[in-house]
Amino acid sequence: MTLDNILEEIKNAENILILTHESPDGDAIGSSLAMNLALKQIGKNPDVIIRDFPRTFMFLPGSKDVKEEASKDNYDLIIALDCADLKRLVGKEYVEKTNKVINIDHHGSNVMYGDINFINPVAPACCEILVGMLEYFDISINIEIGTCILAGIITDTGGFKYSSVTAETFEFTAELLRKGVNVSDIYTKVLETRTKGNFELLRRSMDRLELLEDGKVAFTYITKKDEEEVNAEPGDHEGIVENGRSIEGVKVSIFIRQKDEENSYKVSMRSNGSVNVSDICYIFGGGGHPNAAGALVQGNVNEVKEKLLKEVRKVI
Amino acid sequence: MTLDNILEEIKNAENILILTHESPDGDAIGSSLAMNLALKQIGKNPDVIIRDFPRTFMFLPGSKDVKEEASKDNYDLIIALDCADLKRLVGKEYVEKTNKVINIDHHGSNVMYGDINFINPVAPACCEILVGMLEYFDISINIEIGTCILAGIITDTGGFKYSSVTAETFEFTAELLRKGVNVSDIYTKVLETRTKGNFELLRRSMDRLELLEDGKVAFTYITKKDEEEVNAEPGDHEGIVENGRSIEGVKVSIFIRQKDEENSYKVSMRSNGSVNVSDICYIFGGGGHPNAAGALVQGNVNEVKEKLLKEVRKVI
Fold first, then answer.
1. Of A161, A168, A193, the CB nearest to B159
2. Of A167, A194, A272, the CB nearest to B177
3. In chain A, what is the straight-line distance between the N-terminal and C-terminal CA atoms, in Å?
């Protein structure tokens, strides 16, 4: 069984490198930190590399252990978490130098780049995969590990909201609450505390939000200039695309954000149910989940908008 | 024990009138509909009066049974739910005509106006009180009753977010999910679907939002003219005050909404933790919970704002 193979590799390794995807969100960070604490608990020597760590998640146990670069030349094992593709793996330069890669993820689009791949596309979060995995490994989910895991689950379920949420999600949360974990505090820190930059970006994005195609599509954007003017930090654009999705009648919410290069926009799409936005983003070289996906598209605001709408119109 | 007394009164009654508070929210509606279905299950003949029923909650089982006026002249028993004060009870005119009133609520400010009062200020929602009560009465919480109860819990915990949420809340939700209740669907309908009117009011309120007192106070407002211009429906102002509370550093969020009378504003206040906004609203003749309260204050926007800020400044 894959879980036994993973456990064997972990047992045989001493120095383990934990990696996750670029633009890390709560599930990427939560699963990396939880794995880090779990490996320490069983006497291993792990390193975690995460770049552009959002301030929002600094409260998580073990976040101070995170590095931008590895501290060693060689590792016995790499564990990649919540990352569907090697291209998006931060620290992928260490993959060539390391014999074994374990790839643990919940993206259906995962390309199986590991020597061992443990992919559960039904899990609402990579962190939820870790719950069962750590239990199977007999590693106790203490308050610290539980806090990291819950942060990931809350992030990727939109606060217990998405249809991916399971009875196990709620049971696990009840258990953590009984152990003394302040669920409400984690929830608020992860999802409900807007930095001033985030608030200002949201305010601008709402001002510009257009309802198109008979109200079935919400579209808005943020430029580099906006981000500079409000002193935006990494992660300050979070929540903007979900805001569009929440409007009655909207089937697809599109939010585009200018990248460092003038004529390039990072696209985020969300759908309510029927439309598969992962398929649409795939056309532009991106991907994700059926209800939440992204891509990088060239052009100015209007060009990118028209390119996307052309594809969206075909499926709504 | 009070629960036994309540059960005895219900057993002795045939025609039962279910009432709740004005401007009904998900907990008021969810608990009323759940009680209605539960009483029918045990062969009683209940009526539910709710006025200004928001369209958001029309999906709840039994919502079509709701009346604006009672169908009978006399009832054997009134059950008032989620209502702290007779003044706010819609249908209070029937109280005088009825021998017994059972008052079931979770507001600490409840003034105990019932012949039997069952108040649990620690419960996150009136609906959560019903879970234990119906179990004690041996009334099965089927999918329909469970859906109504969950709608109330999701409303009053802000989607499992507030610190009032308990391990029991999560366990109950897990149980409903296992029974086949679509938790995500209820969540989305209750909290995540913004009517266009709600979106437009939110957009205006965000545009006007001011951060005062070194960013510790968020203030915004909506006028009658706004509501007319966006064709606002009952409930379309929901979420505006929470939006202000979510900004980093904000201790008190104030949202005021013009009433039908020109110079009168309905005040909603939310606090993050330490400040007791119920105490502040009490000064103006209102009340509520320590972290969520309301009042009615006379004046124009600036006058009301200054009256409130004067009191808020004393405690932040």
1. A161
2. A167
3. 42
pLDDT at residue A290, rounded to an integer: 87
Q: Give every CB contact of residue A10 below 8 A, 6+ residues apart in sequence.
A: A16, A39, A42, A44, A77, A137
d(CA B155, CA B32): 14
Cβ of B161 within 8 Å of Cβ of A202? The answer is: no
Tell me the pairing of strands A15-20 and A45-48. parallel
Contact criterion met (CB < 8 Å) for A206 and B203? yes
List strand residue ranges (DSSP E) for B76-136, in order: 77-81, 101-105, 116-119
What distance lies between CA A303 and its chain's CA centroid? 27
Dist. CA B214–CA B209, nearest whole Å = 14
- CB contacts of B174 in chain A (<8 Å) are 167-171, 174
CB contact under 8 A, B248 and A183: no
Collapsing DSSP to helix, strand or coil, A60 comes out as: coil
- Cβ atoms of A205 and A220 within 8 Å: the answer is yes
Is it the case that residue B202 has pLDDT exceeding 80?
yes
3-state DSSP assignment of residue B260 = coil
CB-CB under 8 Å, A174 with B165: no
**Do B196 and A248 count as a contact with CB atoms less than 8 A apart?**
yes
Please state, as a whole number, how many other Cβ atoms lie within 10 Å of the Cβ of residue B259.
14
CA distances from A251 to A99, A213, A291 (A): 45, 10, 10
CB-based contact A196 B248, cutoff 8 Å = yes
Interface A-B: count of C-beta contacts within 8 A? 110
Pairing of β B292-298 and β B264-271 = antiparallel
Please name which of B23, B71, B11 lies closest in space to residue B234, comparing C-alpha atoms: B23
Which residues in chain B have Cβ-Cβ distances shorter than 8 Å to A248?
Answer: 193-196, 199
Question: Residue B143: pLDDT above 90?
Answer: yes
Instruction: Kindly determine whether residue B163 and residue A170, on different chains, have CB atoms separated by under 8 Å.
Output: no
Q: Which residues of B touch A (CB under 8 A)?
A: 159-171, 173-175, 177-178, 182-185, 187-188, 191-196, 199, 202-203, 206-207, 209, 211, 215, 246-249, 272
**SS3 assignment, position B203:** helix
Among all chains, which residue has been given the structure tokens 């998006």? A88
Number of residues that make up chain A: 316
Rounded to 10 degrees, what is the CA torsion of A303, A308, A310, A312? -160
Count Cβ neighbours within 10 Å for each residue of B29-66 and write b for 16 or more, e otherwise: bbbbbbbbbbbebeebebbbbbeebbebbeebbbbebb
Question: In chain A, which ranges are E strands?
Answer: 15-20, 45-48, 77-81, 100-105, 116-119, 210-212, 217-222, 252-258, 264-271, 287-289, 292-298
pLDDT digits (tens, 9 = 90+) for B65-119: 999 999 898 999 999 999 999 999 999 999 999 999 999 999 988 999 999 999 9
d(CA B82, CA B35): 12
Asked if B196 and B227 count as a contact pair (C-beta separation under 8 A), the reply is no
Contacts of A167 in chain B (CB under 8 A): 174-175, 177-178
Q: Where are the alpha helices (DSSP H) in B180-271?
A: 183-187, 196-208, 224-229, 240-245
Query: In A, which residues are within 8 Å of B195 by CB distance?
Result: 248
pLDDT at B193 over 80: no
Q: What angle do CA B88, B274, B243 make, to 5 degrees?
A: 65
Per the CB < 8 A criterion, the answer to whether B252 and B218 are in contact is yes
